[in-house]
Amino acid sequence: MLKGEALKGKRALVTGSTSGIGLAIARALRAEGADVVLNGFGDPDEIEAIRAELGAEYNGANLMDADAIAAMMEQIGTIDILVNNAGMQHVAPVEEFPPEKWDAIIALNLTAAFHTTRFAVPGMKEKGWGRIINTASAHSLTASPFKSAYNASKHAIAGFTKTIALELAQTGVTANCISPGYVWTPLIEGQIPDTMKARGLTREQVINDVLLAKQPTKKFVQPEEVGALAAFLCRNEAGNITGSNYSIDGGWTAE
Hints:
Largest sheet: 7 strands, parallel
Structural class: alpha/beta
Helix content: 40-55%
Number of domains: 1
Strand order of the largest sheet: 3-2-1-4-5-6-7
């Protein structure tokens, strides 16, 4: 099948898709012919430019609000592809970790995926075709200090994905995780100051001795690489891939 046609006629919701990994996934799905619904926060003019670029719809629902998710999913209607990508991070020792940050991270990284999935599955089952992709992390397979909420949410999203895959195994709907290592995105850049504070390091030390130290390739993963993997998992050729957790981490979790 030619590029641009593999996902023609499919409709995809990608959460957290106004920047970073989510935007790269949205672009990759659109390049394969899917119609895309964007979700996320950011500068309105920049979001409008992205929407126009992709010929996409946009819904700015706050995914930490269950009622807002319900309203978004009702407004969007039936979708063929769901990519739960929205996420946030906070870095602090557990005894100093703000409870409100814990609640927010679990709500966005984990609970939001539960809500979008429960609304999307009936339509997928009715069609006999669907793709659910959850952006997890290398931290779904291993842990790092000072990231208690993030590690917990990503381990949980991996388990959630396996459960959904088993429930939907005979329906034509697949569910998989993508677990990137450190990808150079606003999320990673934004956690550098907190890591500097928590560990008493300079910016350069955080990048070289904390982040890239984890990845044997000594290179950041590129958002487009994650997008390409997501697009493949949505193709018909990937119809028998379900319940899997795909690492794209420069060899981090091979050690």
